[in-house]
Design goal:
alpha/beta; eight-stranded mixed sheet; four-stranded antiparallel sheet; about 50% helix; about 15% strand
């Protein structure tokens, strides 16, 4: 951990800001996932509800606004960010976030507490530097001397700074959707993610699960996208609820729940899920099959195979057979044997940035070129397993045409034995060949699903 406490503070209970800083350092400097690092920290420290909410706001807010906070810091300091100790940069980011975006935090508290954090992990000179930057920020904010670029001068940079996204991504989306939709998409990404649950219909009904949630103090409503889905608008004691009802549900995004219904497996079928971990879609497929038949659930990593096994066991599912297998590598004994094959492909993930606060800063434009070749290889391989009359479903959680519609069209052009297999749109009921969900239009995570059939 980049944050080091002085020895005389070692046994002192950590403040909310100290805990938040440690989590931010883990995310921005050590590559941790925001949700996992935050949940681990909250479990490790005894915090009341007020502190938990404050820590959560500081972590997610600072991580999402990183680009804007760094721009603000560049306006306030002549010292380049890469010349400042990483922990101190994060203290400054967190301090600036409080000053510019948290109206209920007094400026004096943001400055003083940030200075104390700097003292705890560095020396007095550094603490004075932090105090000076933040005091200057307060004066600049009050005087209105920090002015963000206007859209008329640089639309992409302006939207990037105001809406907390990388400029390259704003430009890309603006070319694809137009600037107004891009703003709406960015704003969607910045909303707090809601908890969504998929009812385990092998053990209960959605109505019963809703009643149990309500009794436990949750506020929840049925999803309009998926018959098993539940949206929790207020959560209380999720861990305790799961301990009381361990096999009742699975945490899964609404868009993700649609995939198994497009696959539409029937009891007794042979189904291959080639990119299965951690098992959300796999266990949903098993539900639709009434736990009858066989599902081969593949992943390239042994520790992820374990996750599939654990989730299947918790939900009381017996037909899932985890297999350590590279989805792009041919397995001859599977040739022409599957009734259904699902390729939920590794992708750029640009449709789910709302749930992965840190991901927007980890991706680059060049990274996007990595995915289509791998996706094509997996899809080509998957096609070899589908029997005549069987179904091949391809899905991603991205908005990129090169990873979605362009890729499936190219596949069909190169594989005349396959054709589109129409399925019903979950809301309109109309028959479609593919479904591209867009957050700014559909108010759900971005997702692409395409169903194809091998001709007889």
């Amino acid at each position: 951990m980049a944050v080091k406490q002085k020895q005389n503070n070692k046994n002192k209970k950590k403040s909310a800001r100290q805990i938040a800083l440690e989590v931010i350092c883990a995310i921005l400097d050590e590559g941790a996932y925001a949700n996992i690092a935050l949940n681990k920290a909250l479990r490790s420290h005894s915090c009341d509800d007020r502190d938990r909410r404050f820590i959560t706001e500081l972590v997610y807010g600072t991580v999402k606004a990183k680009g804007t906070l760094d721009w603000l810091l560049s306006q306030l300091s002549s010292r380049p960010i890469n010349k400042i100790d990483k922990a101190i940069v994060n203290i400054l980011r967190m301090g600036l976030y409080q000053l510019f975006y948290l109206d209920k935090v007094p400026a004096s508290a943001a400055c003083n507490e940030s200075t104390e954090l700097a003292k705890a992990c560095s020396h007095l000179g550094t603490a004075k530097f932090v105090n000076g930057i933040l005091r200057s920020a307060v004066r600049s904010k009050e005087a209105g001397s920090i002015v963000f670029p206007a859209e008329s001068d640089n639309a992409a940079l302006s939207v990037a700074l105001m809406e907390f996204h990388p400029e390259w991504l704003v430009k890309r989306w603006a070319a694809q959707f137009g600037m107004e939709e891009t703003k709406a998409l960015c704003r969607y990404d910045n909303l707090p993610p809601q908890l969504t649950l998929r009812t385990n219909t092998l053990k209960t009904t959605r109505e019963e699960l809703l009643a149990n949630l309500k009794q436990a103090g949750f506020e929840a409503e049925p999803s309009r996208w998926c018959a098993e889905g539940i949206i929790c608008t207020k959560t209380v004691g999720l861990t305790a609820f799961m301990e009381r009802h361990p096999d009742s549900c699975y945490m899964q995004d609404e868009s993700s729940m649609l995939v198994a219904h497009v696959v539409n497996p029937q009891p007794g079928m042979a189904v291959y899920d080639l990119c299965a971990a951690p098992g959300g879609k796999t266990t949903h497929l098993a539900q639709l099959m009434q736990d009858k038949g066989t599902i081969y659930a593949c992943d390239i990593h042994a520790h992820k195979i374990k996750l599939i096994e654990e989730n299947a066991k918790r939900l009381g599912i017996s037909i899932i057979k985890p297999v350590l297998q590279d989805a792009a590598v041919y397995k001859p004994d599977w040739a022409n044997t599957a009734d259904c094959v699902l390729v939920d492909a590794l992708c750029s993930g640009l449709g789910v940035l709302r749930r992965r606060a840190e991901a927007r800063w980890r991706k680059t434009k060049n990274d996007l070129e990595v995915f289509p070749p791998l996706q094509k290889a997996i899809l080509r391989n998957a096609a070899r397993y589908v029997k005549a009359g069987g179904t091949l479903v391809y899905s991603t959680c991205t908005l990129e045409p090169a990873e979605n519609s362009e890729l499936t069209k190219a596949f069909l052009a190169a594989n005349p034995k396959f054709e589109y297999a129409g399925f019903k749109h979950p809301l309109t009921g109309e028959t479609v060949n593919e479904l591209q969900l867009l957050p700014q239009r559909d108010n759900v995570d971005g997702f692409y699903i395409c169903a194809m059939r091998r001709k007889e």
